[in-house]
Amino acid sequence: MHNLNIPETPMTPKIQMSTAGVCEISGTSRPEDPNEFFAPVFEWLDDYFISAPAPLELNVHLKYFNTSSSKVLLDIFETLEDNKDKVDVSVVWIYEEDDDELLDAGEELLELVEIEYELREI
Length: 122
Known about the structure:
This protein has helices spanning about 35-50, 65-80, 100-110, and strands spanning about 5, 15, 20-30, 55-65, 90-95, 115-120. It has three helices and six strands.
């Protein structure tokens, strides 16, 4: 099991998946092929849930994401939901003050799954 670090680009978010259980997706997400871009995240999560070393907290702090990225985010949240019996999981959806659009988007996505989450304004 190893950490996964993908640097941010103008089209893709920074991804940091830590074996310590604190993970982050931040920046802008509009990759040409989101399934291909996020494939390493799903592989990492599969490995993490097999070894289940610690509770997992996923911090999501996106400034923008497109529709295809929202589907992948939901898939990530569903993966967390599917494994919540193995490991305590939670999501912190971080949004900028007065960014009602991102607040609403996060709330809508997270209400579709049964995992603990927090909406955090900064």
